[in-house]
Amino acid sequence: MRRLAVLVFLAASVVASAQPTDERGVLGLVEGREATPGGYFYNALPGQPVTRVYVWGRVLRPGVYDVGPDFDLGGVLSMAGVTSERTPLEGDPELMLRLFRAGQTEPVYETTVDRFVADPAAPDIEYGDVIAVEAEGVARVAVIGSVLRPGTYEVGPTFSSRDALALAGGPRLDPLESSAERTTTVRIFRTGGGEEPDYRETLQSFLGGPAPALQDGDVIEVETRIKEGWSRRDVLTAAGVVTSGVIAAVQLYRVLSAD
Questions:
Q1: What is the spatial order of strands in the sheet that 181-189 belongs to?
Q2: Distances in Å between the alpha carbon of 87 and those of 29, 31, 119, 241?
Q3: Which residues form the Soluble ligand binding domain (predicted)?
């Protein structure tokens, strides 16, 4: 009897968790990076007909969604992780929301995410729909070399090459000996530009002058060269070598003079 009660409790818990949530949230900018669909999500009461839609693009949980009849476009996007909890940053790309019917290449509904927030009126979802959340004007740039966080970054249309370098943590400025000299060079390579950089300046000129605009596929390389100077130990070592040479020469002269 106790085992039966436990099974009934577990079944009730599963049914309760499958009910569509009323907290659809407010749509806004999407956290996370672009990803390909890979998850499966189900939210419908037992016995309810389900509508299968596909969500991909700049959402937290891209994938296949089977949802009940109470769900609309906003509800599916909320399940996919579209949220407005983050304050938009300057330079964030504008996000486009597009709804495609199964087998069609042109969207039946298209708007920005911000406009959808203000006016969530949209066509009803149908079986086989594809919901795409894409960023407009995004450039993917690689920052390599002597930086704190080398990698590939997605930046908005108002970001400059200096902003991309800041995202990578800036150039590495490890402590140097007092006599050492550091020279840091910034190079930018464009797609299809060959082996020679399209931009080359010292770090000081790069930070103080006009920042080159970014293009999709740019590679920003930061190279640091350190020229070692004469330290106190080096001076003492050289002085010791010279002194030893002088002493040896004097002794040799005395030997030759005695003969």
A1: 151-155, 139-145, 219-227, 181-189, 199-202
A2: 8, 11, 20, 66
A3: 141-176
Q: How far apart are CA 184 and CA 172, in angstroms?
A: 9
Q: Hunting for tokens 């979802």 — which residue is that?
A: 125
- How distant, in Å, are the alpha carbons of 155, 162, 165, 172, 239 from that of 146? 20, 15, 11, 6, 36
Q: How many residues does the chain have?
A: 259
What tokens appear for 123 in the block? 């066509």
- All structural domains of the chain, each given as residue ranges with its CATH number in brackets, are 20-136 (no CATH), 139-227 (3.10.560.10)
Write down the pTM of the prediction: 0.48
Phi-psi category of 232—alpha, beta or left, where left has phi over 0 and alpha has psi -120 to 50? alpha
User: What does the alpha-carbon distance between residue 12 and residue 201 come to, in Å, rounded to a whole number?
Assistant: 67
Closest CA to 91 of 35, 139, 59, 57: 139
Burial class from Cβ neighbours inside 10 Å (0-12, 13-18, 19+) for residue 84 reads middle
User: Tens digits of per-residue pLDDT, 158-195?
Assistant: 788 998 999 899 998 877 666 678 889 999 999 877 78
Cα dist. 67→73, 77, 105, 125, 244 in Å? 11, 12, 23, 10, 89
* CA distance linking residue 137 with residue 155, whole number of Å: 9
Residue 135: partners with Cβ closer than 8 Å, 6 or more residues away: 34, 58, 93, 94, 95, 96, 154, 156
